[in-house]
Every structure is written in C-alpha cells, then in structure tokens.
User: What shape does this take?
Amino acid sequence: MPETPGHRVFDRELLDRRRRRWLGDGTPPSVRFLLTAAADELAERLSLVERRFEVAVDLAGHTGEMATQILASGKAGRIVRIERLPTLLDGPDLAAVGDEEALPLAEASVDLIVSTLSLHLTNDTPGVLVQCRRALRPDGLFLCGFLGGDTLSELRASLFAAEAELLGGVSPRVAPFADIRDAGALLQRAGFALPVTDQDRLTVRYDNLFQLMQDLRAMGMANMLVERSRRPASRRLFLRAAEIYAERYADPDGRIRATFDIIYMSGWAPHESQQKPLRPGSAKTSLAAALGDRSDPA
Assistant: This one.
C-alpha cells in the first residue's frame, strides 16, 4: 500500500480505461464476484451499527451495488456516490465525479463513508484515509474493504520464478498489497478513533493460469504498475509460469488455487462520547463489538 505522496505506483489513467471495459455491458457478471463479496460483507458489518447516518458516501464502489445495500439497510437518510468515471454514475442516486485521492467533500460534511475494493489501487493511501477522516462529522464512521495480504501470491511467485529462470531477472507484474498490520497502523495515523481491522480469505480454483489471467484482465486487474516492463512478455514465459503454478499450487484434481485476501477496516471520527482506548497490547474487542458499541445515545 503506497505511503509516499507524489510517488506514482499505479498508472491510474490505464486503470480508468480498464475499468471502463470491466464494467461495460459485455463483461460477464461472474467476474464481479470479488466486488459482490466485499459489498455483501460491508453491508453485514454496517448492519451491526445501532444507529442511523444522515449523509452516507459510497466511495468508488464501481457499480452502485454498495449504495443500493446501504439504502436497503435503512442506515442512511441520503447517499452520495463518488466515482472517477462519469459513466459509472448513471441512475437516480446523488453523485459526484471525483478521485479517491482528491475527495470532493467539505470538512465535517458527511456521516458515513464506505469504500469497496478501491483503496489498494491508490498512490497515496494514507492521504486518502486522512481526507476521509476530515470529511466525516464527529462520531462519523468509515468502513472499507480492499485487497491485501497474500492476494495473488501464487501468481506472483510463479511469474517471478519463470522470469528468473528464462531471463535471469524479474520485473514487477503483480501489484503490491498491504498486510493487515499496515492497515491498522494507517487508520491510527489518519486519526481515526476505535480502529479495527480484520481479514477474510477467498480461495478460488481455476483450471490453469491462463483462465485466472483471463478473469484478472476482465476484472481490470491486469498489470498497471508504473514501473511495469514495456517489453511484451513472450508466450514461453507464461507457459513456463503455468507449469510452475501447477507444480506448486495444484490440488489433487489438477486445478490451481488463487488467493484473494480482503482486508476490512473500520474507524470513527473522534468524538468526546467515545470510549477511551485501552493500554497498548490489551485490546480484546472484536469488530462486531466495536461497531455495536457506537449506539445512538438518543
């Protein structure tokens, strides 16, 4: 997860072009399984909160599915969708075109921000979190799910091994992902109160590496690193990577495993009514308890 303002890790213009294809009419709904899984989980976590938010923001939720779930929950009076691409904002919802890295939100102007599978592809993730905290009114809630941990670790290792064997060196081909400890530290540094992080692992099985990469391209997740090699990769490289993948990560039936870790975060804009933090190392609060404990005193 990038931490250096001004340092570009991801080519976000390329990301925009791929998102247009990913979210176009010709994209099979089956490749949106990660987005659906994260939206369902965030909606479930929001249901644990025993209060209602006047103004909610669906931040870069791509399809509007998160906004729909928030409204269906009855937890928000109004919801505003924010997307980089105007084409993603069709529909009756209040909407604004804006970048996650430059939020079009005034300070202390909203009560709930929910981000779905977007922040792992920002170049200044700490800055985004600071902006979210500032945009929240006191005692406002931030919820987020993003890819992290060992996501696509099998693919990364197979490509590195094949490239080192055939070319004598490696180039970055899979995005870097933050681990859960990084996520918790970033919440604290951004000034959130009662920060909570946890992780859910999805293991998806494919017939081979090429089927996995086809899904990744359809999802807009192909290599978009600024420092990616501009030299076209040879078919020989991918054939060898597929062999290594099958040797190391295949199940007895021959199908390969692909790991997707989704890290979930929650934090509250500070307010005097909130619990005081425990001594370092003494926390025993689960996510459900931390969310449910913020009941509306009224």
